[in-house]
Amino acid sequence: MSIIHDIRTAFSRRDNALNQLLLINVLVFAVLVVLGAILHLSGGDALYARLVRLVEIPSDLPSLAWRPWTIITYAFAHVGFLHILFNMLNLYWFGSLVREYLGDRKLVSIYILGALVGAAFFLLSFNLVPVLRPQLGIPMLGASGAVTAIIVAAATLLPDYTFNLILLGPVRIKYIAAVVVLISLAGINSNNPGGEIAHIGGAILGYLYIKQLQRGRDLGRPVQATGDWLGSLLSGRPRLRVTHRNRAEEAATATPAKKAGPRKPEQEEIDIILDKISRSGYESLSKDEKQKLFRASQK
Predict the structure, then answer these.
(1) Which of 87, 65, 97, 67 is nearest to 21 (CA)?
(2) Which of 112, 134, 155, 265 could form a disulfide with 177 if both were Cys (CB 3.0 to 4.6 A apart)?
(3) Helix axis angle, 267-280 relative to 287-297, nearest 10°?
């Protein structure tokens, strides 16, 4: 019961998106492992294969038409231990950076958009590239496209941030992201070209998302709006009612107000933060201070 309680607690928090993404992937993996073991011992391997097909994305469009939900479910399902291990480690390391600077909602947006763009690249490659047509029908499973989007997004946002890697020491994450992309490009000429092409799609999305965000445009707004709608639907909260007044009423009751939008940190706040960096280093900053510094850089 304590495990179930911990899971419920993790999903009840609104500031826990990274852990929730990790948990969903691990839970789906655990369910598939348990079902696979049970069905194998009972001679139900064919049934297990049909269950996996319910979450993996097919490369042929007629099969996708019968299972349209797989354009997103594939990004939360794994069947290999090493596959989920590396994906979840990368999601945790790079996702922590994205969440720290941009918040939970944008982290989820990048993950979902990375999965969708990765699926689009996967489908287009098998259906339009002649050399891949003979392999049409091969499915795809795993969060690699979505995780690659987060890796590249973090590297685009904070290119000179360093990770201490075993045997290599401190390495800037822009070089880690570059290696990830190069490995995916090299892997196209392998037995998993569709998966590697999906990684490239995720990488492009991660780069464009941050570049557009720095220009003031959030590509993840549709994802966030959909999430808000689903959240209100599942929680049973009533939707807000909008009333309209004529212009005369608005003019009579209007009061001066500042332009809506996220508040930019004042220069004095930024000076204090910069002084703190010079005294104690960048890592001494709180999450709120790092987000203020990032917003100020967009001025």
Answers:
(1) 87
(2) 155
(3) 120
Of 116, 210, 222, the closest CA to residue 158 belongs to 210
Residue whose structure tokens are 């196209």: 188
Dist. CA 289–CA 122, nearest whole Å: 39
| Six token digits for residue 148 | 């690659």
The model's pLDDT over 201-216, given as tens digits with 9 standing for 90+, comes to: 999 999 999 999 999 8
Question: 202 vs 121, 146, 278, CA distance in Å?
Answer: 9, 6, 36
Q: At what angle do helices 144-157 and 104-128 cross, to 10 degrees?
A: 120
Q: For residues 55 and 187, state if they share a domain.
A: yes
Per-residue pLDDT for 119 more than 50?
yes
- In angstroms, the first-to-last Cα distance of the chain is 50
CB of 108 within 8 A of CB of 21? yes
pTM score: 0.79
Same domain, 153 and 286: no
* 291 occurs within a structural domain: yes
| Residue 66 in domain | yes
The stretches of the chain forming alpha helices (DSSP H) are 2-12, 17-41, 45-53, 61-66, 70-73, 81-102, 104-128, 144-157, 173-187, 193-214, 221-235, 247-253, 267-280, 287-297
Tens-digit pLDDT profile for residues 133-154: 888 888 999 999 999 999 999 9
| 188 three-class SS | coil
Backbone angles phi, psi at 280, to 5 degrees: -120, -5
- Cα separation, 283 vs 26, in Å, equals 30
pLDDT in tens, 181-194: 999 999 888 878 88
